[in-house]
Amino acid sequence: MGATFPSMSSSSAVPAAKPPIRDALVAAAFRLFLERGFEQTTVDDIVALAGVGRRSFFRYFPSKEDVVFPDHEGCLADMTAFLAASGPEHEPVRRVCDAARLVLRMYAENPAFSVQRYRLTRQVPGLRAYELSVVWRYERALAEYLRGRFAGRPDGTLRADVIAAAVVAAHNNALRSWLRSDGVGDAGAAVDHALAYVQMTYARPADAPALWSGPAGAEPGPGGDVVVLVSRRDAPLWRVVQELETVLDRP
Amino acid sequence: MGATFPSMSSSSAVPAAKPPIRDALVAAAFRLFLERGFEQTTVDDIVALAGVGRRSFFRYFPSKEDVVFPDHEGCLADMTAFLAASGPEHEPVRRVCDAARLVLRMYAENPAFSVQRYRLTRQVPGLRAYELSVVWRYERALAEYLRGRFAGRPDGTLRADVIAAAVVAAHNNALRSWLRSDGVGDAGAAVDHALAYVQMTYARPADAPALWSGPAGAEPGPGGDVVVLVSRRDAPLWRVVQELETVLDRP
DNA sequence: TCGGCTGAGGGTACTGAGTGTCGCATCCTC
DNA sequence: GAGGATGCGACACTCAGTACCCTCAGCCGA
User: Fold this and answer.
1) What is the Cα–Cα distance from A68 to A131, expressed in whole angstroms?
2) Among A237, B56, B63, B83, which residue carries the largest CB count within 10 Å?
3) Cα distance between residue A117 and residue A99, in whole Å
4) Is B250's CB within 8 Å of A230's CB?
């Protein structure tokens, strides 16, 4: 109700003279969407309520769906900049988790607005599809960053894609549960918990440890021969598995 | 070019008298899409070429985008049935990986068609958005199954969502790389490799295998203590990994 | 002061996707 | 063969999105 509407207020340097007409369109659109539904509201209804010409709507928003996500473009730009500003000193998985937290911050900045939008996107298939494409762009940004960091590693792009998907899924799991509870409670803590699960699973030190392995003498017992693998306890698990695959001669 | 077009040929019991008009629409649509592009082709063009009435197009396909994915609805039904037919004896993560392989099988059944469609979806934003919503439904099916299997566990829904996303990402990573190489090579092997990575990460069986492992006497060398793992050579890799995780005392 | 330039916004008309409705033909059943 | 169900075509309509052109304000150099 009394929620203020986000326009483009990203962390960009210049406020850039935000046009009041854009905010008027968002406000009018949400009023009508909540009153009579998204599909029952035409663009003409919105521009009539906002008091602007129909053509102006499409000057500010490429499509009717865009007006529901007026702040994601800026948030995506922030995330891209955040990742681009990363250095080799940052642990990659932790870095993409931090990038995901930028999205949460945007939602948490305006709980009432976010909850309203969540209810809307849940019941309008068209909006859900649009949201998927937005989420997909976030995921691609994370994956591209990880691909760069994992370049050269075996299965680097696979690892990058899987971890990006896991981060997004964990983030959305916590975010949606927060939105479903009407935005009460600590969203940041919930997302931290969810992302910790992903970090716990995937975050491994980048430097390769001294790992020694070798098949010991085979002793054909009753069930086949035996493999003995010796490894440092603090070796990254995936390295151990890699060695295991080599030893076992399996893909 | 000479590719046959899939209609709904899922593994349903009855062939169910597949309507030739549907196949005609798909064939006509793809001919025109490849000739002059998706957006440059109107529904009127398609129905004119197929020789049917315009209204019939929307009887078979809810939208113009649907005609590009004529077989996904059936595949999704197959996957849902596959998961519904699962029992407690199936390891959950392995089960969703097998479910994902159903999708790959659909793509691999018709490589030429799949490659054409991939090229189309890559360059048409509207189709990409539509594909995302299709993939999302697969992912939700996997996640719902896992949520059921993980019910009661701490963070069960989180684990379910993350693993479902990881499976889909791994599957798509391998699938897209196969499609990008024009459908040559063994798609099944590529997907198996990608899914093995996910299984390796997440699969945790309930029953203990015939696998013996144990940390040998620690010998604190210059880099930390050492783990010795002994395993049958024919033991499943993920089982070995599970034991490793236990030994290493990591999540 | 004048004339032209530019850029934001308004107005109109058009294309094309998707829907509702009606009428007609065919087929199946009793 | 009557009656109902189903499948298809034809027409009309709504609405999102686009192209084109208009106005008007501000701003410039001459």
Assistant:
1) 9
2) B83
3) 22
4) no
Q: Residue B38 carries which DSSP code?
A: S
pLDDT digit string (tens) for A147-164?
999 998 889 999 999 999
Interchain CB distance below 8 Å, B129 and A128: no
CB atoms within 10 A of CB A126: 15
3-state DSSP of A40-107: CCCHHHHHHHHCCCHHHHHHHCCCCHHHHCCCHHHHHHHHHHHHHCCCCCCCHHHHHHHHHHHHHHHH
Q: Which two tokens stand for residue A186?
A: 């600590």
* Across A26-49, average pLDDT: 96
* CA A5 vs CA A21, A29, A110: distances in Å: 12, 11, 8
Judging contacts by C-beta atoms under 8 Å, the chain A residues touching residue B173 are 157-158, 161-162
Of A166, A221, A244, the CB nearest to B162: A166
What's the CA gap between A33 and A29, in Å, rounded?
Answer: 6
Please, are residues A114 and A107 in contact by the beta-carbon 8 Å criterion?
A: yes
Q: What distance, in Å, lies between the first and last C-alpha atoms of chain A?
A: 57
Q: Is residue B26 within 8 Å of B7, Cβ to Cβ? A: yes
Please name the residues in contact with A17: beta carbons below 8 A apart, sequence gap of 6 or more.
none
**Residues from chain A contacting residue B248 (CB–CB below 8 Å):** 233, 237
CA–CA gap between residue A149 and residue A156 (Å, rounded): 8
User: Could you give the CA distance from residue B174 to residue B225 in angstroms, rounded to a whole number?
Assistant: 37
**SS percent in chain B: helix, strand, coil, step 5:** 65, 5, 35
- All residues at 6 or more sequence positions from A92 whose CB lies less than 8 Å from its CB, including other chains: A145, A146, A149, A150, A206
Say which of B155, B226, B233 has its CB closest to residue A230.
B226
B224 closest CB neighbour out of A168, A198, A234: A234
Q: Chain-wide mean pLDDT for chain B?
A: 83
Q: How far is the CA of A52 from the C1' of C4 (A)?
A: 29
The secondary structure of A23-34 as a DSSP string is HHHHHHHHHHHH
From the list B79, B201, B169, the residue with the least C-alpha distance to A162 is B169
- Predicted TM-score (pTM) of the model is 0.81
Q: How far is B158 from chain A (nearest CA, A)?
A: 6
Partners of residue A230 in chain B, C-beta under 8 Å: 226-229
Confidence of residue B20 (pLDDT cuts 50, 70, 90): confident
CB-based contact B251 A225, cutoff 8 Å: no
Across the interface, whether the CB atoms of A162 and B198 are under 8 A apart is answered yes
C-alpha distances in Å from residue A111, one per residue of A48, A105, A132: 28, 10, 20
R_g over Cα of chain B = 23
